[in-house]
């Protein structure tokens, strides 16, 4: 099984991907997390991607495709859930080609629909503990003590690409470069749209119906 999650930054893909991956025994490949890990490690890939990520721009296709293709070869599970990839038509086509060579294909592409106003509200309020990686939100999940992690008392940080100006740029980039990917999967008869502004449980229910 190969599932693709599509949606703007902040649409809730990561939250739902972790649950679905556990339920279906899928390898969850979250490209944002993978890239940030490369940046933290100071790898060649991370250095190439960092400047783009800090501006909220898409990482170039060749970098993303190379990273993902290497992880498609040995999922060690019942399938793969791609979270945040593909983000351009070129990436979608490259993914199709790689899967076709392995005599398989994307089973379902699920798009999380969320309004721009809601996306900005969600993204601009996020912060993370640099030590234990616990995530917080000013509105939905605030820390007990301002700007301090509840678990390890480390000072919380806000990612550069979650600051308001970068959020607006990310959404603009998403609309112009990623939206055509929806047509790619819609034309293939594999696109399912889910209302990402529902409760977490309601979204999970819709996903269960979509995946089967």
Please outline the helices and strands.
Elements: E1 2-6, H1 13-24, E2 27-30, H2 31-41, H3 44-55, H4 61-72, E3 80-83, H5 89-101, E4 108-113, H6 116-124, E5 126-128, E6 135-137, H7 164-187, E7 191-195, H8 200-211
Parallel strand pairs: 1-3, 1-4, 2-3, 4-7
Antiparallel strand pairs: 5-6
Helix pairs in contact: 2-3, 4-5, 6-7
* Number of helices in the DSSP assignment: 8
According to CATH, what is the class? Alpha Beta
CATH architecture: 3-Layer(aba) Sandwich
CATH topology: Rossmann fold
Largest sheet: 5 strands, parallel
The spatial strand order of the largest sheet comes to 2-3-1-4-7
Number of strands: 7
Shape by Cα distribution: globular
Based on helices, strands and strand pairing, what is the structural class? alpha/beta
- Average pLDDT value? 88
How far the N terminus sits from the C terminus, by CA atoms, comes to: 11 Å
